[in-house]
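Shift notes (night). Ran CRP-like cAMP-binding protein while the centrifuge was going.
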Amino acid sequence: MIPEEKKKLYDFVRGLYPLQDEEVDAFCSSWQAMTVKRKTVLTVAGTTEKNIYFVLEGVQRAFFLDDNNKEATIVFTYPHSFSGVADSFLTQTPSPYFLETLTASRLLYSSYDKIFAAAEQHIGIHKMLLHATAHALKGALHRHIELQCYTSEEKFRTLMARSPHLLHLVPHKYIASYLGIDATNFSKLLSTVKI
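Came back to this:
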């Protein structure tokens, strides 16, 4: 019987890629639960991401901090999705980004060693990881186009179509940073654009 806190992970993995039952069990068995307060830093820039997370509750963000302490929000994660600094995790190299919780969060986590030990034993897990990485890359490239080519209003509308709930969960300054627009312009969009 699957523990209740892991059921969402099992369901998510089954929907992500067609694994055999024993492969799903091998992938999900090492995950542990954790609860963290808001504004908890899970990954510090310059350190190597050792864990991958699955979000049960709460919102997190990865962000870059430049030499002048200017922040750029890279991504938001929320239920029911994976979280963590993916490039650092997959390459086991230092992260250029921080990962923090924006709200109190309940997460499942597993380590690089455990995930890749399971992938070494089960080709289906290896294929699932490749599949998930390819889709993450596709999303990152599409987001790059949004940042480079879309107007501020188009960026805002696209985000609201994809993740409208963020508007009520995340401080607006982080959403403005994610969209690559000034906080004042974001406030104007918020008051003028009908969603």
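Residues 150-195 form one domain. DSSP finds nine helices and eight strands in the chain.
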